[in-house]
Amino acid sequence: GDVRAAACGALGKHGEARGQTVAAVVATVLKSSSSDARKIACQLLGNLGEAAEPHLGAVAERLADGNWQVRVAACETLGKHGEARGQTVAAVVAPMLQSSEADARYMACQLLG
Fold this sequence. Notes:
This protein has 113 residues and is an all-alpha fold. Helices cover 68% and strands 0% of the residues. It has seven helices and no strands. It has helices spanning 2-13, 19-28, 35-47, 56-61, 68-84, 86-93, 102-112. Helix 1 (2-13) packs parallel to helix 3 (35-47), helix 3 runs parallel beside helix 5 (68-84) and helix 5 packs parallel to helix 7. The radius of gyration is 13 Å and the shape is globular. The relative contact order is 0.13. The mean pLDDT is 79.
């Protein structure tokens, strides 16, 4: 897990030059067994701007993560993208209103306003 987290951190430093490729690689870490790696992946995608947009659905799924820090990171990431592209984030987050996880529903409500 720590290796994946470190790799995500290193990739994030080079995100400007190869944003879409980095975003695609980082998005695969969202399904890691390591909560630290999932949290860092969410945070990095929050910093990659438009390159992260194809992966916002995967970030929204982390709103139901078993680790609260991952849920917070996902919420913050979606919030960053919501300021720039409200419709995209609303479409991704709206299905979370039907989640069986109360925290996920709450965060979805917060993101949707």
